[in-house]
Structure formats: structure tokens, C-alpha cells
Amino acid sequence: MNAQSNLARLAIAAIATLGLAATPAAAQPWPERPVRIIAPISAGGGADVAARLLAKSMGETLKQQVIIENRPGGGSVLGTTTAAAATPDGHTLLWISGAHAINAAFNRSLPYDSMKSFEPIGLFARMPFVLVIHPGLNAKTVPELLALVRASPGKYNFASSGIGSASHLGLEMLKLGARLDMVNISYKGAAPSLAGLIGGEVQMAMLGPLSVKPHIASGKVRPLAVTTAKRSAAFPGLPALGESVPQYEMTSWYGMLAPRGTPAGVITRLNEAMTIAQSDKAVLDSLAAEGAELPRSTPQEFRKYLEADIARYMALRQKLDIRLE
User: Fold this and answer.
1) Quick one: CA torsion of 265, 60, 98, 188, rounded to 10 degrees?
2) Theoretical Cys-Cys bridge with 159: which of 25, 150, 202, 318, CB 3.0 to 4.6 Å?
3) CB count in 10 Å sphere of residue 281
């Protein structure tokens, strides 16, 4: 009995010790300091504006400051690398766009694994691109444009914001889907490519709503379609490109990741804070001009979304002679 009693007392003492050791960690508040969201993009663009809207709302929900830290470079690789190496305690996060999936498919020398280095938090917003043409082009609908290009193989050019950009790959997808022969003219960003279109250096481009809306209103460019699977409320009257090119879809999207190993409870709270932001009237009103949809997603659903987008670009890579470094 004495031996059994001693064993019992030792077991109770061990359990108590473990409980005391676990208590500080379990009770440790989060976030205990400002949360940093690394945005691997330049300040001022649509993706940056959306990130700041989310950060403001999340800060109010989490009762802690949420800061956007812009780290552009290497087609978003620089900032993404920094986030992948951050301490996984929920105080450093990563803001991503479709460029994250594009890099995963086309860049063979990434210093991180696009999926395994991170924990998905959620998909925040999804927007269309707009297919626009020079107003001097004799086409007022997508079918008319396709007929024009097919009649003169190699004659027409399209602008892109750089090799491997969404604007480039979106038009390469159109070439493949509609069996077109046209030439990519690569510019250093969306603004120069838009200037090239307005100036008549190229005949068409696929650009974000905010950048083209003023020029659509002034008549400097002519819109033909949005690139989402269905029509957009931001462009009433414009058809979806998929109505003329079966199964065509090209979207711009934003989401958020955390470094691998970030606690599941923290991921859940971050996802909840994002969901609250997606119902915030200020956020909704600010993104309405982009035709943004703010779809709710669990971390698991966002993982599947990201995996599917990477797989789509991997399939496209097999058909294109493109390599990002």
C-alpha cells in the first residue's frame, strides 16, 4: 500500500507540475504586440489599398495595431521570403495575390515552398480584369475582335505588365482558348502598358478596373468584356469573356497566409477577423469600384483555392515557353 500511495502521490505531483508549466503558455495573450502584415508589393496600388482596409478593420477586431509593411521586389519573392522565415507566433503575416500562384508555377528557384512554408488564413477578395482595346480598332464586341485577329495572324499586339504578370498570362490564355496569333509587348508595369494602349503602340490589354475606368469614361479605351466567369456589377452591360471563349476565367484576388507552424487557434482568430472585415461597410464601399467580391472562406477552403490556382498555372506552363527567375 505504501508503495502504491507513494506512486499515486508522485503521479499527482507530476500532473500538477505539468499543469503549472502549461498555464503561462495557455494564458499568454495574442496578439500581445502589433501585428505586421508583409505586403510584397509597392504602396499605392489596388492590392495595397485592399490590404490597408483589411488591416484597419482587423486592428479594431483584435484590439491591437495591425501594420502593413511594403516589401516589393523580385515579383513579390523578396517580401514572401521574409514572411516565410518569420517567427510563427501570429505577429507576422503575408498578404498575397495571384502572383503567389504564378510564382509557384513559373519560378523554378523560389527560396520557399509556396504551400508548405505557410498556413492559409483566408481568401479576402476576388476581382475581374477588363479586356480593353484601342478605340481605333474596328471591333465593338469580343466576337468581332476575335474575327479581326484571326483574319490577320501576327498583325496585332497586346500589352502586358511584364512577362509572367497576370495581364500577360490572361492574354496568353485567351490566345490558347480562342486560337489566336498575336504578339505580346511587355511593359514595366500596368501604367506604362496602359499608356502604350492609349498611344496606339498596342491594340489591346487586360487591366484592373481602377486603372481603366477613367479612360473608359473619356473614350481613350474601349471595354469589351470582364474576365470573371460571370458578369460584374461594376461594369453593367459588359459581357463575361467566357461567353465568347468557353470556360475562360482570369481573376485578380487577394488573400493572407501565416508562416508555417503558426498556432491553429491564432489562424482561427485571424480568419474570424478577416470575415468581420468582409462585412465592414467601409471595406465593401471602397472595393465596390473594382467589382470586388468578398467570398467567405475557411483556412481549409483557401488552401484548396490556392492549390487549384497553382495547378491551373502549372498546366498553362506546359503550353508556354516562359520561365521566371
Assistant:
1) -140
2) 202
3) 7
Contacts of 282 (CB under 8 A, 6+ apart): 53, 56, 57
Whether residue 81 contacts residue 112, with contact meaning beta carbons closer than 8 Å, is answered with: yes
Fold of 35-127+252-317: D-Maltodextrin-Binding Protein; domain 2 (3.40.190)
Burial of 319: CB neighbours in 10 Å, binned 0-12, 13-18, 19+: exposed
How far apart CA 105 and CA 316 sit, in angstroms, is: 9
Cell of 27: 494564458
Q: What is the pLDDT of residues 227-258, one digit of tens each?
A: 988 899 889 889 999 999 999 999 999 999 99
Selection from 230, 229, 225, 201 nearest residue 212 by Cα: 225
CB contact at 8 A, 121 and 265: no
* Cβ pair 118, 257 in contact under 8 A: yes
Domain boundaries of the chain, sorted by first residue: 35-127+252-317, 130-243
**pLDDT tens across 117-134, in order?**
999 999 999 999 999 999
Is the pLDDT reported for residue 297 higher than 60?
yes
**Confidence tier at 14 by pLDDT (50, 70, 90):** very low
Which CATH class for the 130-243 domain? alpha beta
Q: Which residue has the higher pLDDT, 79 or 211?
A: 79
pLDDT in tens, 35-88: 999 999 989 888 999 999 999 999 999 999 999 999 999 889 999 999 999 999
